[in-house]
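Predict fold of POP1 protein; 289 aa.
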Amino acid sequence: KQAEKAVHQKKEQSKTKCRKARRRHINLVAEFNRRQRKNIWLETHIWHAKRFHMVKKWGYCLGDSPTEKSYRACYRAMTKHCLLQDLSYYCCLELTGKENELLKQLARICSIETGLTFEEACCLSGRFEGSLNLYRADRYPKDVLGPVTFIWKPRDGSENRQLWIWMHPALKQDILRELKAIFQCSEPEEICTPEPVTRSVEEEKQTNGVLSLGKKRKKEDKEGEKAVPVKKIIGDGTRDTFQSYSWISQATGVVISDRTMEILRYRLIGPLSHSVLTETLKAASLQTV
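Predicted 3D structure, encoded as tokens:
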């Protein structure tokens, strides 16, 4: 009985590949994409995962608290040097259309009694970023949606303007629904999606023969079938992968685009923030045709 029990309790041999195989680039990319199916990673995820306790919130995997006692170092950086925060999980909605039409409809979801609006001269020029509270259309001071920040693209001589609105992911769906309602953006803009390339049977045999000559091992799943590398996920934790991310209005001509995870956002805190930016970013030379 003891012998039979030992046979049943014997663990199966691990089929995990060696470290060298697991650290190959193609295997790393496939593994990272598989782990991002439920919670999206930021660009700085790997750096944070090695140094922070990670939490899953709003469809993202974010760094919550450091694993080491670095509170004094962070405070020292904020007061004397520079501290960088990754705020890329904040959602960004882009509005494109005529300036008068944008300001006319946006005035319905904010109020001058609360402070700045989208029409503020310093913000409208594109030099400064503004912040305000949004409300449902013509419902001020009731039905508040939440705080947002915005920035206008500087004028380029055209009557069309671009406006980027940043908001917390918990507020995105409500604000997006309200913007689509006031601008009458009900039809999704057509987006060209490439069709999957189909290969003939002869080409597949040739590729399989080349791989067999090179003696490269392919990753296999639990059923023993060849696993297909997972493509990089498009979208974010607040938007479905196959959901339309751009809407156009036939009446006003305004286009609403979801730029979440397409435009990264970082926050620099500290007295040396400006010098860090000037040393990091170099102005591009103007080229006249």
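Residues 20-68 form one domain.
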